[in-house]
User: Which sequence fits this backbone?
C-alpha cells in the first residue's frame, strides 16, 4: 500500500513537472514571452541568440529558459524583436532609434560597437544589479569594455570569442611561443610538404582583427583616450611597423605562402587542415568545433591550439569579440528586468546552451561543457584578450590596415610608405566634420 | 426664342469643346502621369536625395546632419581616388572589349552552325546563357575556387598536372585585376552574344549572296558586311555593358574583396565600402554622383557615334 502511494506520488509529481514545463514553454511565442494581458511589459531586441534561433536545439533551449524566467517574474510580458543578420546596419539603426528615444527597452548590443552606445549616453547604468564580486570576476578586457568614463557599468557582456594558433601536433609538436618560434616551425613544416603558416591577409575585417594581436602584444594603441588615431605616432609607430614587418617577413621568408594576401575567410583554414596542406594557422576558438566536425576522428586528434605567439614569450594578446545586453529604458523597473534577463538567462545558462565562451572566470567551473581542457585553455588565453576600440573612426582604421597589409604582403609598398599612406587617410577622415 | 436658345447652346458647346474627361482622355500626358509619378517617387527622388546627401556630412551612425561642401572636397581630394578611377577604367575597358569579342565570336559560331544545320546549337546558346543568370556573388565564389592558390586550387592543380608552374592569380596585384576581368567577361559574354545574335539575324542574307558572287572571302565578308551592319548593335551593347560593368561590385567583393591592397577596388566597391563599412553616407553619395556622371558621359559619347536615321526614312 505504502509502495503504491509512493509510486502514485512520484507519477503525480512527474506529471506536474511536465505540465509546468509545458506551460512554461506555452508562454513563449514567436514574438512574446508571458501572457498577452500582463500589466507590465518590456521590449527586448535580440539576435538569433534567443527563442527564434534558426538552430532548433538553441531555439528549444531558449524557449525553456524564457518560459521558466517569466514564471519567476509574474505580471510581466516580454515583447520580442528580432534583428536581421545584417548586424552592422541593425546596430547603427538601433543607435539612431535610442538617441531619439525610440529604441527598445533592452537589447543585444554588439561588443564591437558598445563604445558608440556608451558615448551616445543612451545606456542606463546596471551597477545595482550586479555585485562587486561578479564584476571583479569578469576578464579584464570585458570589465573595461562595459565600464563608462564615470566608472559605472553600462552593459553586461555575456559571451566572447578569441583567436588562437592552431597546429598539427604530428608536424609541429611544441607550441611556438614567440614570433621567431612560429617562423622556424612554419619553415620546418614546409620540409614535410606543408605550405607554412596561414592567416587572414586579404581585404576584410578578419585581417585587421587577427593581426592587431601582434600590435597589442607590444602595448601598442590605435587611438588615445579621446578616440584620436595615434597608431602612427611615437612608440606606437615603432610597434606598428614591427608587427607589420613580422607578417612581411613570414611571407618573404616563405614561412607563409603569398596566398595569405587573398584569404578573406576563416573557412579557408578548415579547408587547408582537411586537405592536409597546412600544419599551422591563426583562427578563431569556434573553429575547434568545426575541425572536430570536418576531420576524421584520428585526424582531429592531431590538432591542438595555443596562445598566439608574441614578440617575446611574455608579450601576448588576442583579439576578442562577443555580445552584450544594455538597457535603453529610463524606467527603473524595466532596467531591473533587463538585468535579470541577462543574469538569469544568458550569462551562464545561455553560454552553456550555445557552448559560447563565458566572460566570467567562475562560469568555467560551474558548467561541465566549459571544464574540457580545450575550453580551459581558451579561458586562460582570454586573460590576454583585447577588444577593438569602439570609436567611430575604427572602421576607417581597419579599412586602411587591410589595404596596407595587401600592399606590403604583395610587395608594392614598403611598410613605412604603406603606414604613412594609411595614417594620412585615417587622419583626413578623422578631421572631417 | 427657342431656336435662338438652342443656337446659343450649340455655339457655347462648340466654344467649350468636348467635356473635361474627354479632353484628358485625348491628351497623351494623362496616360503618362502614372508612370511619371512612379518614376518620380522611385527613381528621381532617390537621385535627388543622393545629390542632397552629397552636400551634407550625413553618417549612418551620427546625428545633426549639416550642409557642407567639406565632404565633396574630401572625397574628390582623396589620394586613393585617382588609383581607384584607373582600376575602374582598366576593369571596365577589359570587360567591355572582352565581352564584345567573345560575344561576337560565339554569336558568329552559332549563326554558322545554324546555317549548316548542325545539331546542338540551341544547347550551346543555353549553356552560354547559364553563366549570365548566375548571381554576381556566386560568380565571384566560383572563380575564387578556380583561381585559388591553395595546393588544391582548381586551375593551378591542372597546371601542375601539365608540369606548368602555378600562377599567383589573386595574390599578385596585376594578375588579380586580370582574374577579375576574366570572371566578369565569363559572366557577361552571354548578354553580348544575345545582342549580336539578334543583330546578325537581322542582316539581309542577299548582301552575303552578292558578296559571294563577287568572290569575297570570309574575312572580307566579316570586315565589309558583318561589322558595318553590326555598328549600331556594337555601340548599344557598349553602352549597356559599360554601365553594367561600372556598377559591378558583387562579383569583385566575393572574388578579391578589392585586394590585394586596392588592386581590384573599383569605384562601385569603393562606394559600397564607404557607406556600409565606414558608415559615411555623405561620402558614398558623392561617389554615387560621380558614378552617375561617368556613366552619363560615356553613354552620351557612345550615342554620338550611333548611325542617324536618314531624313527620307
Assistant:
Amino acid at each position: 500500500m505504502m509502495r503504491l502511494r509512493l509510486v502514485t506520488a512520484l507519477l503525480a509529481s512527474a506529471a506536474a513537472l511536465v505540465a509546468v514545463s509545458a506551460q512554461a514553454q506555452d508562454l513563449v511565442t514567436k514574438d512574446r514571452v508571458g501572457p498577452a494581458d500582463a500589466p507590465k511589459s518590456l521590449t527586448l531586441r535580440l539576435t538569433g541568440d534567443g527563442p527564434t534561433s534558426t538552430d532548433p536545439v538553441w531555439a528549444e533551449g531558449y524557449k525553456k529558459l524564457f518560459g521558466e524566467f517569466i514564471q519567476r517574474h509574474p505580471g510581466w510580458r516580454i515583447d520580442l524583436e528580432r534583428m536581421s543578420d545584417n548586424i552592422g546596419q541593425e546596430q547603427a539603426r538601433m543607435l539612431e532609434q535610442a538617441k531619439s528615444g525610440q529604441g527598445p527597452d533592452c537589447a543585444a548590443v554588439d561588443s564591437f560597437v558598445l563604445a558608440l552606445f556608451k558615448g551616445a549616453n543612451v545606456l542606463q547604468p546596471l551597477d545595482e544589479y550586479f555585485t562587486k564580486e561578479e564584476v571583479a570576476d569578469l576578464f579584464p578586457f570585458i570589465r573595461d569594455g562595459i565600464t563608462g568614463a564615470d566608472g559605472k557599468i553600462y552593459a553586461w557582456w555575456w559571451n566572447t570569442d578569441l583567436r588562437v594558433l592552431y597546429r598539427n601536433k604530428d608536424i609541429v609538436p611544441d607550441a611556438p611561443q614567440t614570433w621567431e618560434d612560429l617562423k622556424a616551425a612554419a619553415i620546418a613544416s614546409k620540409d614535410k610538404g606543408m605550405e607554412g603558416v596561414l592567416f587572414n591577409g586579404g581585404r576584410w575585417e578578419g585581417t585587421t582583427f587577427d593581426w592587431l594581436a601582434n600590435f597589442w602584444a607590444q602595448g601598442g594603441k590605435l587611438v588615445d583616450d579621446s578616440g584620436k588615431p595615434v597608431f602612427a605616432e611615437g612608440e606606437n609607430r615603432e610597434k606598428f611597423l614591427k608587427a607589420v614587418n613580422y607578417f612581411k617577413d613570414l611571407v618573404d621568408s616563405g614561412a607563409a605562402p603569398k596566398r595569405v594576401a587573398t584569404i578573406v575567410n576563416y573557412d579557408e583554414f578548415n579547408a587547408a587542415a582537411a586537405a592536409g596542406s597546412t600544419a599551422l594557422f591563426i583562427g578563431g576558438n569556434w573553429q575547434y568545433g568545426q575541425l572536430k566536425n570536418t576531420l576524421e576522428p584520428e585526424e582531429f586528434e592531431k590538432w591542438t591550439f595555443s596562445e598566439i605567439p608574441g614578440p617575446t614569450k611574455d608579450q601576448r594578446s588576442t583579439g576578442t569579440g562577443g555580445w552584450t545586453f544594455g538597457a535603453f529604458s529610463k524606467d527603473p523597473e524595466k532596467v531591473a528586468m533587463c538585468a535579470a534577463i541577462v543574469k538569469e538567462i544568458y550569462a551562464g545558462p545561455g553560454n552553456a546552451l550555445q557552448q559560447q565562451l563565458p566572460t566570467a572566470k567562475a562560469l568555467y567551473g560551474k558548467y561541465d561543457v566549459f571544464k574540457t581542457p580545450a575550453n580551459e585553455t581558451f579561458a586562460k588565453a582570454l586573460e590576454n584578450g583585447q577588444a577593438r576600440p569602439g570609436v567611430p573612426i575604427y572602421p576607417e582604421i581597419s579599412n586602411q590596415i587591410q589595404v596596407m597589409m595587401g600592399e606590403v604582403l604583395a610587395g608594392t609598398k614598403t611598410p613605412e610608405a604603406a603606414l604613412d599612406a594609411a595614417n594620412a587617410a585615417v587622419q583626413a577622415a578623422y578631421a572631417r566634420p | 426664342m427657342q431656336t435662338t436658345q438652342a443656337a446659343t447652346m450649340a455655339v457655347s458647346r462648340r466654344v467649350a469643346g468636348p467635356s473635361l474627361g474627354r479632353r484628358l482622355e485625348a491628351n497623351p500626358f494623362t496616360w503618362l502621369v502614372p508612370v511619371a509619378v512612379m518614376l518620380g517617387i522611385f527613381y528621381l527622388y532617390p537621385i535627388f536625395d543622393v545629390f542632397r546627401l552629397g552636400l551634407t556630412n550625413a553618417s549612418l551612425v551620427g546625428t545633426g546632419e549639416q550642409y557642407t561642401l567639406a565632404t565633396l572636397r574630401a572625397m574628390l581630394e582623396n589620394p586613393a581616388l585617382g588609383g581607384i578611377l584607373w582600376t575602374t577604367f582598366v576593369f571596365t575597358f577589359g570587360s567591355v572589349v572582352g565581352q564584345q569579342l567573345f560575344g561576337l565570336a560565339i554569336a558568329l559560331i552559332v549563326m554558322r552552325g545554324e546555317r549548316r544545320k548542325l545539331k546542338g546549337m540551341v544547347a550551346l546558346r543555353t549553356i552560354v546563357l547559364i553563366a549570365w543568370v548566375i548571381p554576381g556573388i556566386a560568380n565571384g565564389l566560383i572563380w575564387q575556387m578556380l583561381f585559388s592558390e591553395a595546393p588544391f586550387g582548381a586551375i593551378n592543380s591542372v597546371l601542375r598536372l601539365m608540369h606548368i608552374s602555378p600562377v599567383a592569380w589573386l595574390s599578385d596585384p596585376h594578375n588579380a585585376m586580370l582574374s577579375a576581368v576574366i570572371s566578369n567577361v565569363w559572366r557577361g559574354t552571354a548578354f553580348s552574344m544575345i545582342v549580336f545574335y539578334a543583330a546578325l539575324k537581322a542582316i539581309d542574307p542577299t548582301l552575303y549572296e552578292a558578296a559571294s558572287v563577287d568572290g569575297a572571302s570570309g574575312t572580307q565578308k566579316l570586315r565589309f558586311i558583318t561589322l558595318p551592319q553590326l555598328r549600331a548593335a556594337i555601340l548599344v551593347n557598349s553602352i549597356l555593358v559599360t554601365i553594367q560593368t561600372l556598377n559591378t561590385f558583387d562579383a569583385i567583393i566575393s572574388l578579391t574583396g578589392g585586394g590585394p591592397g586596392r588592386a581590384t577596388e573599383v569605384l562601385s566597391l569603393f562606394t559600397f565600402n564607404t557607406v556600409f563599412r565606414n558608415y559615411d553616407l555623405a561620402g558614398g553619395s558623392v561617389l554615387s554622383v560621380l558614378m552617375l556622371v561617368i556613366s552619363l558621359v560615356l553613354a552620351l559619347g557612345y550615342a554620338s557615334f550611333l548611325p542617324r536615321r536618314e531624313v527620307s526614312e
User: Anything to note?
Assistant: Chain B touches chain A through 39 residues (CB under 8 Å). The mean pLDDT of chain B is 87.
